[in-house]
Amino acid sequence: MVANGQTQVEPDTALRMLNAQQQQFEQGIVKVADNVFTAVGFHGANTSMIVGTDGVIIVDTLFGPTSAAKAAEAFRQYSEKPVKAIVYTHSHGDHIGGASAFVGDERPDIYATDRFGSAEGVNKAVDPVKMKRNVRQFGRKLSPPESTNRGVAPANTHDSDRGEGYLPPTVTVPDSGLKTTIAGVEIEFHIGPGETDDAMFIWLPKEKVLLAGDNFYSSFPNLYAIRGTAYRDVLSWSESVAKMAEFKPHVLVPGHTMPIQGQEAATAALKDYSEAIRSVYDQTVRGINAGKSPDQLAHEVKLPEHLQDKPYLIEFYGSVPHAVRAIYAGLLGWYDGNPTTLNPLQPKLKARKIAELAGGTKKLTEQMKSALEKKDFQWALELADHVKWLDDGNKKLARKVKITALRGLAAREYNAPNRNYYLSYANELESGHLSEVWF
């Protein structure tokens, strides 16, 4: 086997790692303080309940009313007080779509930042393809035997009621933040851009509990999502997490995965997380200024050695190489500065020249087949993409090779989005759902 990327390991190891990660989102209620409870595993994200004197505060509301109703029912064993306030840490759909399930006759205040709604940027024009890539990234159409998980969430969630329980914010948190009392609970809202520009985190000063939203979860962060996103401000993300660490929380409640309890453990996790993000950013910037290309940097940048074994920084969800490429494009755009890549050959012409270099289409096809036999799956994929452009190429064979290579890579991936994308794309190719352009 020839490894491609730092999240490729032996198939048994990859599966064992992903199965172990499942413990991070086993369904249940975690009591994080005398009056604070977090529901984990009821959907992809977490929802939390803070119990006050005459009511409760709900922080994030899951994906839709079905999953939210189940979490709300589980919360009732700890309190049946009415919901006085709902807080959205940011505007991703898995945190805001189930609000109605928590609301009774009394309509609560709903808190969000002034930038709320900007989570996906302004790229609505490409929503059609983003939806297809979203399905692949999260493996939404994979069969049960193919499914593992989504890195920071279970594989199988109830998604058909997406956003049906959403209620719009009624209280805007200013850029300076907000300190107030709700249902007798002292609560602080702090602006913290990171995974989204509209993010904030919540601090409970008496309980010493910090609710981080999606700026922290137990995995290397998804600084770039392969479903397609606008540039996520990596430097701001690192700074926001460093700001969280200054509070020295006794409990850290992530947007996904299990809470981290204990001041030392919670504070160390935040410091390490901030350092990891900043290190990837700084290494990438140094490489950029040294004239290195994104392809080169994606293979060179690594987490600092003392952070590589931290369980909350394993690349189950985010990926260092993807982050590097996103930082490069976010800071400089697509062009890597090398005039060779300024106006590259069109794919069909390049494929023809690659075939000539190999000694003809037949020789190139033999090389493709040989790469697959050697389990050099990435090279087999790349050669298949050349063969499929050739007028005299065996497109049916190229498609078959690509399907097999994708499944070979998937079996070795412990990065869940990569694994899900490889398998989903292979299935689409096999079913004939992809056009010749996509193939």
UniProtKB/TrEMBL annotation:
Q: Which residues form the Metallo-beta-lactamase domain?
A: 44-256
Q: What InterPro entries does its record include?
A: Alkyl/aryl-sulf_dimr_sf, Alkyl_sulf_dimr, Bact_Alkyl/Aryl-Sulfatase, Bds1/SdsA1_MBL-fold, Metallo-B-lactamas, RibonucZ/Hydroxyglut_hydro
Q: Which GO terms describe its biological process?
A: dodecyl sulfate metabolic process
Instruction: Write down the CDD domains for this protein, in alphabetical order.
Output: arylsulfatase_Sdsa1-like_MBL-fold
Which residues does the annotated region (Disordered) include? 140-171
Entries under Pfam families matching the protein: Alkyl_sulf_dimr, Lactamase_B
Give GO MF terms, alphabetically.
linear primary-alkylsulfatase activity; protein dimerization activity
Q: What is the protein name for this chain?
A: Beta-lactamase-like domain protein
Q: Which organism is it from?
A: Rhodopirellula maiorica SM1
